[in-house]
Amino acid sequence: MPRRSCLSVPGSSERFLEKAPAVPADMTFFDLEDSVAPAEKVAAREKVVRAIRGLVWDDRVLCVRVNGWDTRWTYGDVIEVVSAAGERLDEVMLPKVESPAEVVALDLLLTQVELNCDLPAGHVGVEAQIETARGLINVEEICAASPRLEAVIFGPADFAASTQMPVLTGGVQVPEYPGDHAHYVFAKILMAGRANGLQVIDGPYLKIRELDAFRDFCQRTRVLGYDGKWALHPDQVAVLNEMFSPTQEQFDRACAILDAYKDATEGEHKGAVMFGDEMIDEASRKMALKFVSRGERAGLKRSEG
Ligand code: GLV
Ligand code: MG
């Protein structure tokens, strides 16, 4: 499933929950964590259950972000929401993951909920948020902690707090820094995710009115190979769906590379062949396949002729 745009919806807001199905995000997640005030945490569970069951969703990924294991709400969030709405729920997002044991604990809890609710074993997937210094240090073990894991996500706001960066807004450009201040983090999370077959997602961009700056910032993780990024507002969703899809030109070129490579290997029994003015081989096929599968997921069709 594509996750180019992952829309965050506060679980305590009936108004935002009701609007969410009309926003064309690849993934919608209902937040029980940091966008919900402590006094609303418990009541939000029921609102999220009602939204999942009662509203009309297409085939997008539906996820609930529970509170982290360092709070008192995690097990209640999982048991209440997954028991009542587990059938349509694709996954649970665990924030502030610092060790593989936290993922294993969630996996075990989900196994029991699935048994009690007649859900197929392994039905509910897990997404892990990396947003602390300790989480980043352990990201390789975290990404390998459970077969339920589907995606790993960077959380820039909590990460800035955890590492004591001298900024007051996380996940935006830092012009004083000569380069990309988050490059090491982006690259490290990407390697850990890909080594374990996970999708890799960038987190929120908090200046929601600055769409040009948002588009510019998306390039950092898009170019590295991330699958998508969070959206905090419907306007960000449209930008993400475009930014994290191949262009028609890239899609057509990737299809042409696959054809040329197939002709070369199957017709002429050659492993490497010229494609225009460049050499292509098996590695080119693998690169092209990724463009084609992402393009097809985005609904692209090969141009005629
Ligand atoms: C997201 O949860 C973040 O902390 O950036
Ligand atoms: Mg966070």
Considering the chains and any ligands shown, give keywords for the structure:
binds magnesium ion, 12 helices, binds glyoxylic acid, alpha/beta, globular, 305 residues, 2 domains
Written description of the protein model:
The protein has helices spanning 14-19, 41-54, 74-85, 100-116, 133-137, 139-143, 156-163, 183-195, 211-224, 234-243, 248-267, 282-297; strands spanning 5-10, 27-31, 61-65, 91-94, 125-130, 149-154, 199-202, 228-231, 273-275, 278-280. With 305 residues, the chain is α/β, with parallel strands linked by helices. It has twelve helices and ten strands. The radius of gyration is 21 Å and the shape is globular. The longest helix is centred in the last third of the chain and has 20 residues, at 248-267. Helix 2 links the parallel strand 2 (27-31) and strand 3 (61-65). The structure holds glyoxylic acid (GLV) and magnesium ion. The site of glyoxylic acid (GLV) has 11 residues, from helix 7.
In terms of topology, how is this protein built?
Blueprint: E1 5-10, H1 14-19, E2 27-31, H2 41-54, E3 61-65, H3 74-85, E4 91-94, H4 100-116, E5 125-130, H5 133-137, H6 139-143, E6 149-154, H7 156-163, H8 183-195, E7 199-202, H9 211-224, E8 228-231, H10 234-243, H11 248-267, E9 273-275, E10 278-280, H12 282-297
Parallel strand pairs: 1-2, 1-8, 2-3, 3-4, 4-5, 5-6, 6-7, 7-8
Antiparallel strand pairs: 9-10
Bound molecules: glyoxylic acid and magnesium ion.
